[in-house]
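Thread: quick sanity check before group meeting

JM: Hey all, I'm pulling together slides for Thursday and realized we never actually wrote out the predicted structure for the chain we discussed last week. Dropping the sequence here so it's in one place. If anyone has concerns about the input, flag it before I start.
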Amino acid sequence: MDIPAINTFEPEENIKRVLLVAMKILTRGMVSILSPSLEKELRQLFLEPNKDFDYEDVDPKSYYAINKTEHKTNAWFDGKTKIGELTVEHHFYEKVLSKYLGDYYKRFVLPQVEFSSLVEPIDGQNNVGGYQRPDFLITTPTKSIVVELDGTDHDAHQSRDDERGRALQQSGFSTIRIGNQEIIDNQGDKLKELTDILQEISVKDIKKISETDKYLLAVKLANQIQITIVKSLLAGMISIADNKSDIYFDMDSVCFEQKEIETIAKSVIKDLNELLKNL
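JM (edit): ok, ran it. Output follows.
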């Protein structure tokens, strides 16, 4: 999650303890586990009654499927060097990453993430990253990679970059630094190092998603929504104490019909409320 460095709401200590327990429950194990009641609601939404779960009807690639948006990104890229009409960072995001990650590349990439969202604070403070955001965070099922694109002034702040790299490594992120010239030339050792990794997870266009796949996607999405809400509460992005916070769901970002995503969202919120009340 890209969490702002400054909290809007500060949860009380007793609420924070409850949220931390909820986070442990939601993130236990290596697979998405829902409450029996929420899982039952999702089964009723997508699977026929009394029908056995058919594993042969599952396409593992559908796990990554989101609707493809044709419009250009509204992410902010702060570089000045350009390739045609786009900055090097913007070109790398829309042209290079889409080429090697496939049609659903936005599923794996978060541009300009807040540095404090990636590293654990030391003694309550986190000043290593300053106000500079890493260019890209790429997450795959097995890797978490921070990609930095370096201009000609990189040598001037080498020590700061090394410090940031160590902090990221301690938090489980590997860092690949690619010179702008490699992106412009479309070749280079560091660019090849990254693209070799990305090709392992490239996902091409998925033409059809079965109801079984939809069910599995809904399970994954439900778990992620609940984790996102709890992390947002812990980070002070939204408040549990009043009605001053709104949560918006992007209906176009997932492969469900509007009524389906509305049902998923309502069921997820109700189930999370029950979990927090019982802790």
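AS: nice. The mean pLDDT is 81. The chain has eight helices and six strands.
JM: adding both to the slides.
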